[in-house]
Design brief:
Elements lengths: L35 H19 L3 H12 L9 E3 L2 E8 L2 E9 L1 H4 L7 E5 H8 L3 E8 L6 E8 L5 E7 L4 E2 L5 E5 L2 E6 L2 E5 L15 E6 L9 E4 L6 E7 L6 E9 L2 E8 L2 E4 L7 E5 L2 E5 L4 E3 L2 E3 L4 E5 H5 L6 E4 L5 E9 L2 E8 L2 E10 L2 E6 L8 E6 L7 E7 L6 E6 L8 E5 L9 E9 L5 E9 L10 E4 L14 H8 L4 E5 L9 H5 L7 H16 L8 E6 L1 H12 L6 E5 L18 H4 L5 H7 L4 H4 L9 E6 L8 H12 L4 E6 L10 H19 L1
Parallel strand pairs: 34-35, 34-36, 36-37, 37-38, 38-39
Antiparallel strand pairs: 1-2, 2-3, 3-4, 5-6, 6-7, 7-8, 7-9, 10-11, 11-12, 12-13, 14-15, 15-16, 16-17, 18-19, 19-22, 20-21, 22-23, 24-25, 25-26, 26-27, 28-29, 29-30, 30-31, 32-33, 33-35
Helix pairs in contact: 1-14, 2-6, 2-14, 6-14
Length: 694
C-alpha cells in the first residue's frame, strides 16, 4: 500500500488570504486541525467506527497484524556508513524504535548482534515527547557528525539535532534546526546548508524552503547568509555537497513545480545551471552526468525520446559539449524505474510490461556495454541499490512478489563477479498455499489497454461471488508493482479474498507518458481506467459489485473519492485513506500548492471547469446512493490536510449515507507511527471490507 504525494506545525499559511475556509462551507470548521470542536467530532466518530467493527472481529485481527508488525523475523534493512551497517528497528520491546548498527560479518549471521546507538523510547521518556524517527544524516567520510531528524507524532515537519557518533552523545550547543519542513545537509563539520522557516518569505507557498543559507557553527541561524533564493511560487529549493573524494562539488536545486527542476553547480567559482530541460532529472556521479527525460529532447543533432536515460562526461558538458549516449531508451512496453551508479558500472532497474529486469551497463573504449544481471528471480519486483557507491561495486538486491516472501541478497556488478548471495529471507507470514498470480487487461473508455495483477486461489470459481479488493494509485508517476504484503495476505488473501492491483495511467509503469497523458484536464481518464478494471472483474465473474471493494491512499484516496461519487454502482465498499477530496481548496491546504502540476489550479476559473469534475467533496449529492465508505486519516498529517476526509465524511453522514471514519492523532501522512497504530488502521480497514463484502 502506498501513501505518496512525495515531498512534504502550521496547517495553513498565514500569508495566504484563502487559507481560511470559505464562509459558505458548512463543514469548514473541521479544517481547524486541533480545534476542540473538531477533535470532539473526531473522537465521537472513532468510537462509533471501532464499536461497530468490533462485531466483525476487529480486535482479533488487530492482534494478528500487530504480531506480524512486531515480528523479529522481519528483514532488518541496513545502510552502510564507514565500517558499520545501520538499521532503524521497531518491535514490541521498542515501540518508538532504536537506531542500531552492526558489522557486515555479523549482519550475515541469522541472528546478528546489534549495538544500539539511540533508543527512541528512552529519549521519549526522558524528554516527555513522542518522537518519530525521520533518519540520520552523517558527514562522510568520518561519519562522526550526525544530524538526527525527529518528528513530533509523525508529521513531515521535524527538528534536526546534532549527535556525535564517536562519543555517543547529543552535542551540547550543537547545530539545532527548529521544527519545520527543512532541508539540511553538511558542507563541513562546522558548516551546513540550511533551508528552513526563518520568518516571513522564507518558505514557498507549498510550505517548503524558499532559500538556502550557509550556516557556520557558533552563529545564529537567522543571521546565516542567504546564498540562493527561489520564487515564492516554487515548490522548494535545497542544496547539498558531493563529498566523493576527488569529485567534491556543491549543488543547488530549484523546483519551480513538482515535475520541473533547475540544478546549479558551483563551476569556476559561480553557481552555474546544468543546461538540461527543466522537466528532466539531472544527476552527477563522479565524471558522469546522467539525464532522465520526461519529454523528447533534441540535443547534439539528435532527438532522444521521453523516458530515456542519457549519459555524458560532466566536465565536457559544462564546457559546452553536447554529445550523449543512451543507457536506456523505452519501447512500447518498457520503462526505466531507476538506476544506481557505482565506480565500475551503472545498474538499471527496468520494467517490461510491469515485470522487473535488471541491466548492467559498463563503460568501455567503444561506449557502454550492456548485459542482464545474472542470478535473479524470473518474476516479481526486483530492485538494486549500491551498498557504498563511493567505494565498491557491491549492491543490495531485494526481490518479492505477492506470494513469495521478500529476500535480501548481496551481489556485485563488477566484471566476473559471483552470483548474488542471499543474506536474509522473510518467512512466510501468511498462508499462501494454493494462490496464483495472473495478469489481465481491461479496456478503458478511450480504448487504452490497462493491465492489472490478480492474486486468487487456483481454480477460482467464476460465479461473481468472490470478495475482491481492487487497489490503485494513479498519479505522480508512481508505479504499482508486485510486493509481499504480509498484512494484506493475512487479513485478506488467507481468508479467501481476491486481490487485484490496477496499473492505471498516472503511474510510471510505462514511462513518463503513462503519467503525463492524464494530468490536469485529462485527469478523468485515471478514473475511467480504474472503473474499467472494476467492470472487467465483474464481466469475468471474478466478482460482482456487491462483493467488490476498492482501496487507495493519498492521491489514491482522491481516486477512491471519485469511485465513491462517480461510480458508486460498481462497488460494495470503499476504503479511502489520507485522501485529497476538496479539490476547490486543496492548493491552499498544507503542501497542496506543490501538486498543481498534477491537478491544475482551481483558483483559475478555466481550470476549475475541469477540476470540479473530479472533486469528490463538490460532487457528493444527497440524492445519490453510495456504497459504505471508511475514511482514515491522521491529525498529524501535515502533507494532506485531515480536513479533506473529515469534511466529506461529515457531509455524507448528514445525508444519512453509510460512513465509517477513523483518525489517528499520530501518524503523519503514513497514517500511523507505531506498530499498534498501524495494526489498528489495517485491522479496521479489512474488518470493514469483510463486513460489507462477504
Amino acid at each position: 500500500m502506498i501513501f505518496s504525494l512525495a515531498l512534504s506545525v502550521s496547517f495553513a499559511h498565514a500569508d495566504d488570504p484563502l487559507a481560511a475556509p470559505p464562509k459558505d462551507d458548512p463543514y469548514g470548521w473541521l479544517e481547524e486541525v486541533e480545534g476542540a470542536k473538531s477533535l470532539e467530532w473526531v473522537k465521537a466518530r472513532n468510537g462509533e467506527s471501532e464499536g461497530t467493527l468490533e462485531v466483525g472481529g476487529y480486535k482479533k485481527l488487530k492482534g494478528r497484524l500487530k504480531s506480524i508488525l512486531d515480528s523479529n523475523a522481519r528483514i532488518p534493512y541496513v545502510g552502510k556508513m564507514g565500517e558499520f551497517y545501520y538499521n532503524f528497528w521497531q518491535d514490541a520491546d521498542h515501540v518508538r524504535g532504536v537506531w542500531r548498527r552492526t558489522t557486515l560479518a555479523e549482519f550475515q549471521k541469522p541472528n546478528p548482534t546489534w549495538d544500539v546507538v539511540i533508543d527512541l523510547d528512552a529519549l521519549d521518556a526522558a524528554e516527555n515527547t513522542q518522537w518519530v524517527w525521520h533518519g540520520a544524516n552523517c558527514l562522510e567520510p568520518e561519519y562522526q557528525h550526525c544530524l538526527i531528524s525527529l518528528s513530533r507524532g509523525g508529521s513531515d515537519a521535524d527538528v534536526k539535532r546534532e549527535y556525535d557518533l564517536k562519543s555517543r552523545a547529543w552535542v551540547k550547543d550543537g547545530f539545532y534546526v527548529p521544527e519545520a519542513k527543512s532541508e539540511v545537509s553538511w558542507i563541513t563539520a562546522d558548516r551546513l546548508w540550511v533551508g528552513t522557516d526563518t520568518g516571513p518569505d522564507s518558505l514557498t507557498t507549498s510550505g517548503y524552503p524558499r532559500e538556502v543559507r550557509a550556516w557556520e557553527r557558533g552563529t545564529k541561524l537567522e543571521e546565516a547568509p542567504v546564498l540562493f533564493r527561489g520564487a515564492a511560487t516554487d515548490v522548494a529549493v535545497n542544496a547539498w555537497t558531493d563529498h566523493d573524494k576527488g569529485y567534491e562539488r556543491q549543488f543547488v536545486n530549484e523546483s519551480p513545480t513538482f515535475f520541473t527542476n533547475r540544478t546549479f553547480v558551483a563551476w569556476k567559482g559561480v553557481f552555474t545551471r546544468i543546461g538540461v530541460p527543466e522537466d528532466a532529472n539531472a544527476s552527477v556521479y563522479r565524471q558522469w552526468l546522467f539525464v532522465e527525460l520526461r519529454t523528447d529532447w533534441t540535443v547534439g543533432g539528435k532527438t532522444w525520446p521521453a523516458g530515456s536515460l542519457l549519459v555524458t562526461d560532466f566536465d565536457g558538458f559544462m564546457g559546452g559539449a553536447r554529445t550523449f549516449e543512451a543507457l536506456f531508451t523505452p519501447t512500447s512496453t518498457t520503462a526505466l524505474q531507476g538506476f544506481t551508479a557505482t565506480p565500475g558500472a551503472v545498474t538499471l532497474n527496468v520494467l517490461d510490461n510491469v515485470k522487473s529486469k535488471v541491466i548492467i551497463a559498463r563503460h568501455a573504449e567503444k561506449g557502454w556495454a550492456m548485459e542482464p544481471m545474472a542470478g535473479l528471480p524470473s518474476f516479481g519486483t526486483i530492485s538494486v541499490s549500491a551498498v557504498d557507491a563511493e567505494a565498491s561495486d557491491d549492491v543490495w538486491i531485494t526481490a518479492a512478489d505477492f506470494v513469495t516472501p521478500t529476500t535480501l541478497s548481496l551481489g556485485s556488478v563488477a566484471p566476473g563477479a559471483k552470483l548474488p548471495t542471499q543474506l536474509k529471507t522473510l518467512p512466510a507470514l501468511y498462508n499462501a498455499k494454493g494462490l496464483e498470480i495472473t495478469q489481465g487487461e481491461a479496456t478503458s473508455l478511450d480504448g487504452t489497454k490497462i493491465p492489472y495483477f490478480m492474486v486468487a486461489k487456483k481454480g477460482l470459481k467464476l460465479d461473481g461471488k468472490n470478495p475482491t479488493l481492487l487497489y490503485g494509485y494513479g498519479g505522480f508517476e508512481v508505479s504499482m508493482l508486485p510486493s509481499y504484503n504480509s498484512l494484506m495476505g493475512a487479513a485478506w488473501l488467507e481468508q479467501g479474498g481476491v486481490y487485484v492491483l490496477a496499473n492505471i495511467r498516472g503511474g510510471g509503469e510505462f514511462g513518463p507518458a503513462w503519467h503525463t497523458s492524464v494530468t490536469k484536464a485529462n485527469r478523468h481518464k485515471v478514473y475511467e481506467d480504474f472503473s474499467a478494471v472494476a467492470k472487467e472483474l465483474s464481466a469475468r465473474k471474478v466478482t460482482s459489485a456487491e462483493h467488490l471493494g476498492a482501496m487507495g491512499g493519498s492521491n489514491g484516496g482522491l481516486l477512491m473519492g471519485n469511485m465513491l461519487t462517480q461510480y458508486p454502482e460498481l462497488f460494495g465498499a470503499i476504503v479511502c485513506q489520507v485522501p485529497l477530496l476538496d479539490m476547490k481548496r486543496y492548493n491552499h491546504l498544507l503542501a497542496g500548492a506543490s501538486w498543481m502540476d498534477e491537478y491544475g489550479n482551481p483558483d483559475d476559473p478555466e481550470q476549475w471547469k475541469y477540476i470540479q469534475t473530479f472533486s469528490p467533496y463538490q460532487l457528493e449529492s444527497a440524492d445519490k446512493d453510495y456504497p459504505p465508505v471508511l475514511f482514515l486519516t491522521s491529525t498529524r498529517d501535515d502533507r494532506v490536510h485531515p480536513g479533506h476526509a473529515r469534511k466529506l465524511a461529515a457531509k455524507l453522514l448528514d445525508h444519512k449515507k453509510p460512513v465509517y471514519f477513523w483518525e489517528d492523532i499520530e501518524g503523519g501522512h503514513g497514517g500511523a507511527a507505531t506498530s499498534d497504530q498501524r495494526a489498528t488502521m489495517w485491522a479496521l480497514s479489512y474488518t470493514f471490507l469483510w463486513k460489507e463484502l462477504k
